[in-house]
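One record is set out below.
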Amino acid sequence: MSDDTILVGAVAYDPKVVTIWEGIRAYFQDQGVRMDFALYSNYERQVESLLRGHIDIAWNTPLAHVLVQQRTSNQSLSLGMRDSDQDFRSKILVRRDAGIKSLSDLEGKTLAVGSRDSTQARILPLHFLRQESVDLDKVNLLAFDTDVGKHGDTGTSEIDVLSALHDGRAQAGAVGDLIWVLEQSAGRIDANVIEVLWTTPPFDHCMFDALPSLAAEKAERFKKALFAMDWNDPRHRHILELEGLKQWMPPREEGYETLRDALRQHGAAR
């Protein structure tokens, strides 16, 4: 491989990931930028590969992004994110027959949560509930550690949460906005059974990360091509739709502060 090729790591959480990255690679080539990708089975391995210099850039979840920053003493480079990664939220859902009218009513009830490495379905919902003075020692957590290593990307644990709510194994549950909207659109939410109790404060999601040793010229070529993707260009729109965005955005860090706080106080999972 030529030294000027930019090698990007991504986690293969779904078969469509291959289609997405083949499309992105073709787009970069059209922009005159040599780029290739390497797929990983989990984010822990991808983070280690980035730190060892095996890849130039990693497409990371919020948890992986913060862990990379911790492992590099905050010297890592944040290169870009999706518009849909900004101001992400989670939902606390409840069964209508559970008699839960406020967050304090969760005490004594069963709360279904996603995988221990899911920012949107476990780590941050529990963190935000603590901030709202909910005593989680008085809440029975029904945890679905599904697809651990994918950091909630597959959404499988959130589907498990919704299933537990529908069949009555749990009176409440935590899911991310995206799964909530998708499952509603697909007609798989029984609105006679489940309703939204509370929406969390916003937080940010995925980020392209690199080591500070990445050549500045490579970083600039990557960002220039990435930010040139145009929703109004039909050749670009299909890729953007598959990756769930309309526009690539410059990085920002303030949206990860609550996750940093949660990890400092409680680790990756309760």
Notes: The domain at 6-85+205-266 is CATH 3.40.190.10 (D-Maltodextrin-Binding Protein; domain 2).
